Amino acid sequence: MEKYYGWGLPIDISTHGYGIDRIIHIMHAAMALLFIGWFVFLIYVLFRFRARKHPVAIHDVKHFKFPTIVEVGVAVFEAILLAAFSFPIWVHLHDQLPSKEKALEVRVVAEQFAWNIHYPGRDGVFGRTDAKMMDAANPLGLDKADPAAADDVTTINQMHVPVDKPILAHLSAKDVIHSFYLPVMRIKQDAVPGQSIPVWFQAKATGDFEIACAQLCGLGHYRMKGYFVVDTPDKFDAWFLENEPKLLK
Amino acid sequence: MSEHASHDLPFWRKYIFSTDHKVIGIQYLITGLLFLLFGFILMLILRWQLAYPGQPLPFIGHLFPESQMIGGIMLPEFYYQLGAMHGTIMVFLGVVPVAVGGFGNFVMPLQIGAPDMAFPKLNMMSYWLYFIGAVIMIASFFVPGGAAQSGWTSYPPLSNIASVGQTFWLVGMAFMINSSLLGSINFITTIIQLRAPGLTFNRLPFFVWAQFVTSFLLLLAFPPLMAASVMQLMDRVAHTSFFMPTGLVVNGALSSVSGGGSPLLWQHLFWFLAHPEVYVLILPAMGIVGEIIACNTRKPLYGYKALVYSVIYIGVLSFVVWAHHMFLTGMGTTMSAFFQVTTMIISIPSVVILTTFVLSLWGGSIRFSVPMLFALAFLPMFGVGGLTGLPLGLATADIHLHDTYYVIGHFHYVVAPGTLFALFAGVYYWFPKATGRMMSDKLGRIHFFLSFIFMNGIFLPMFIMGLAGVSRRLYDPTQFAHNLSTQPLNVVMSISAWLLGLSQIPFIINFFGSIFRGKKVDNNPWKATTLEWTAPSPPPHGNFATEPHVHRGPYEYSVPGAKQDFIPQSAPEGAR
Amino acid sequence: MSGDSGIRYISHPHPVTGVTNSKLGIWCFLASEVMLFGGLFSAYILLRMGAASWPEGSAILNVPLATLNTMILITSSVTMVMSWASLALKDFKKYRWFMAVTILLGLAFLVVKGFEYAHKFEHHHTPSTNTFYAIYFTLTGLHGLHVLGGILVNTYFLFPGSALWKKDPDQFMGRIEAAGLYWHFVDLVWIFLFPVLYLL
Amino acid sequence: MSGHTPEEIHHHVKIYIRVFAALAALTVLTVGVSYIKLPVMAAILVALFIATIKSSLVAAFFMHLANEKKIIYWILLPAVAFFLVLLVLISYS
User: Fold this and answer.
1) How many domains does chain B have?
2) B140/B168 Cα distance (integer angstroms)
């Protein structure tokens, strides 16, 4: 898997990640420009006005106009960055959720220290879950008596998704705050107990990747790893069939 | 209450339970420096695990009890204790006590020409509350389950269900909060009421301005954390559910608490403090740097008014940016937009301050003394720290960078090579005032150059790791594929950290050695203008033999036609 | 100059700001208290807005007792300010009398509060029952601690602290004013706590 | 608190008594209103309105804020402002 990750940003296989990477790149270019310009000036001043060469200081220095221009420039640049780059992506990710018909819906329920993935199955309806029914064999507390639950697929630390299809994930947590982190998908979103937070993404390439937890969640935080597999639609369907509850087959 | 005759006081009243602002300042400074060293050592141990995960710590590994290391191999329990306590100790027990308690207490009353703080007894109480809080924090390492291990941010529900060390953390914090409350009341009252005649607000040294704004931040930002700490304490001790939502399932068992609480409430109240707290860490440092630059360029600070306005502006705005730490908690578009905008706005005054400092160098006659070296290094280091805050302040870029090493690099550049360098500058600069002796120039330079190199050796690679997506707070980073390519950097960083530790030896020798053997100097060795340099070194109880009167601004260096290249603030009118 | 320490404006106001150190200091303290209770009030709002159902305070808390307590605290505020006014009139005896009444009223408040708490505990209504009781006990408990602190300070000024009246009446009056400001603030917090917890 | 002459103090005392009467009356009023079952929102507004009047009376007269030095206002201004910021932003989110 080394090829996905180097010293720069991880590869990006999401449809929205381009915008995030672009803002990071623009920002760093601007920062480098500002810093190098400023730093060169600093070194120049230190050299030119060192006490040995410039024994008497000037009490009244003329007023500099250039820094004001730079400061206004920085402010304008930040405003553009916000309005043109940052806000639109945020709105895209948070307010323009894909419709339930178009997307594959899943529930991601985090716990110490695993990711439970809950697929609604063919009926597209999540079976009822109840915290009282949770145990080692049924970590989601899925109520088997609920007809909608019959075809639900649940996995632990295995998230399979089809490529080129919007995925709408509802994040929640059973115990403490976790953070659902897909580096290659430019997705990071806290899973807060007591809340269900929607997050959506769409992969544009297949591959085997990882889910990481990005919020300290206890002693096993560092090994709270899930597998994130993006498949072709055929392969995904095959995987899904294989995992469907036996009674349906 | 005859405290004028301080030489008559018994030892314990004069040096231990003293009400003299200078003694308290030095108590704060030395205690704070020791905690900085202690917090740093915690990190030096922790960095072994990051560089060589799962390998036994050589030489000293077997000295640790089995609850912390087994066969020299660090346990995750201990790792997370080290991490949480490093943050807590550095911020609350180290930097703030040195920057505000130490320099603020020692220098500020001298700079405004006051005989002492307005409330000397409160001042003493402030130090001792801090001391008790610190003892409680340290004691928590020895309780069952060890110290707090939920990060210095202590997010519930994790912190609610953590071992008893977290309760110690909360109680310790309560002491810290009350200590800084008493301190800030004292600072504000002293600066408003006890300025020497003629020392108007627009003649105030920049350092005093910085302390003034800092005090307001402490006064108004800490109480909500006190409220939050009380609530978390209630959650832990009285089993309330302030931060516990309904239906928690912990370790496979349904939680017995009533539920109905909100984990995000803690984050709001915590960051309402902790963002202003960032400026509590940085403003006094800026104040120190301003003083040292003016003195060592032999010219007035460029744009004194712009500096003062910027500091006030930062202070006010720092109360409305807190939720940029919480972009990923499921925040709505409007709120995220609001906090992104305020975050971008607050970057402007920081740019102004940095630019103004650099322009202050223009036309100067720059002396590269040791304090000046540290002050100059502060500028680019704070620059890097400030600039790298921008991508984090944009919610979109934050999606990738949030809680990665990029964040760690960002705030460490602000606080470690930033604030810490300024604090070192301050130690070298005011040492002769406190002791009447100079610190060694040669050792100071060695300390500076080594520290500068290794600081960057630690923190620069963090940005690369952060961009690669490496999360913070990982006991073993090699568990994830995306962390492997940058893992060699962890070795570089750890070695830099250990060498940085060694680089502090010249400072320690210099600091304690110079108290007894430093070169004796007169009252004003730097030829500076502000009032503290007109007092004897070390200043006696009551500070000034006669009350100083101020006749001019703080930085009258190199006035054309003057006999000397500086005119003290208290020199009579028309003095040349 | 006043006092031996050389610190100015302990007894007499600063010519420019017009206030003494203690007055400025106590107001700074009260400003921070505003933020402390602000944090708890915002917790109250957040918890209440997030709750599926929120009990009506008047249905489960004892409104008549709380009304009595409100009256007690308001009265104690008046006696507190009267004790200060008595000092301004140089009537030290009256000062002691009013101050003693203030302290007794403060104690009465705590006793009533104690009955209220005891009643709740008897019915197994503890902070852990639900978030309403959690915030109720935390807010009133913290407020009660403030009352207790005020009583201690006032008791000090009633007995040992009043020796200062002979030495430096201005400084002593300043201290009583500061103690009064604190006491009124505690009253003021209760004025909000009362409707928020008991009536809404 | 403009001055400490006996006349002024006697005048102050008269005000204190009146404020006390007003506070007591408002307490009775707010309890009384709570027995009329107003809609929740209206009840909250009325109760907070009365509480605000009461606390203003305490602050203005007992704490002498009606006639205080400028510096005190400057200390309180940021506290009140940030208090509102905390309340509004937290409840909004």
Assistant:
1) 1
2) 6
CA distance B422 to C187: 45
Are B379 and B357 contacting, i.e. CB atoms less than 8 angstroms apart?
A: yes
Asked if the C-beta of A38 comes within 8 angstroms of chain B's C-beta atoms, the answer is yes
Residue B292 lies in a domain: yes
In a domain, C1, yes or no: no
The model's pLDDT over B289-342, given as tens digits with 9 standing for 90+, comes to 999 999 999 999 999 999 999 999 999 999 999 999 999 998 889 999 999 999
Minimum CA–CA partner of B223 in chain C = C36
Identify whether the C-beta of residue B78 lies closer than 8 Å to the C-beta of residue B69.
yes
Alpha helices in chain A (DSSP H): 17-48, 66-80, 87-94, 233-243
pLDDT in tens, B254-298: 888 888 999 999 999 999 999 999 999 999 999 999 999 999 999
Q: Helices (H) and strands (E) in chain B — how many of each?
A: 20, 4
Give the residue from B351, B356, B345, B349 showing the smallest Cα distance to B289. Answer: B356
B391 part of a folded domain:
yes
Of the residues B471, B483, B566, the best mutation for testing chain A's interface (the one with the most A CB atoms within 10 Å of its CB) is B471
ipTM: 0.94
- pLDDT at res. B338: 94
User: Among all residues of chain D, which has the CA nearest to that of B329?
Assistant: D93
Nearest by CB to residue D90, choosing from B220, B268, B320, is B268
Query: Which residues between 183 and 242 in chain A have a beta carbon less than 8 angstroms from any beta carbon of chain B?
Result: 183-184, 186-190, 192-195, 197, 209-210, 212-223, 225
Contact between chains at B335 and D93 (C-beta distance less than 8 A) = yes
Instruction: Give yes or no for B495 touching D (CB within 8 A).
Output: no
> pTM score > 0.90 for this model?
yes
Q: For residue B56, what is the DSSP state? A: P
Domain assignment present for residue C74? The answer is: yes
Chains D and B touch (3+ CB pairs under 8 A): yes
Residue B518 lies in a domain: yes
Query: Is residue C186 in a domain?
Result: yes
Q: What are phi and psi of B161, to 5 degrees?
A: -100, 5
- Inside any domain, residue B549: no
Is the distance from CB of A175 to CB of A112 less than 8 angstroms?
yes
Provide the residue ranges of all domains of chain D, joining segments of one domain with +. Answer: 1-62, 69-93
CATH number of residue B312's parent domain: 1.20.210.10
Domains and CATH numbers, chain A: 2-94 (1.10.287.90), 104-248 (2.60.40.420)
- Measured between beta carbons, which residues in chain C are less than 8 angstroms from residue D47? 195-196, 199-200
> What CATH number is associated with residue C191?
1.20.120.80
C116 located within any domain: yes
Tell me whether residues B366 and A49 touch, CB distance under 8 A.
yes
Q: Name the residue facing C200 among D6, D43, D71 (closest C-beta).
A: D43
Cα-based distances in Å from A125 to A100, A122, A163, B493: 10, 8, 22, 50
**C positions 44-63 inside 8 Å of D (CB):** 45-46, 49, 58, 63
User: Do B257 and B248 form a contact (C-beta atoms < 8 A)?
Assistant: yes
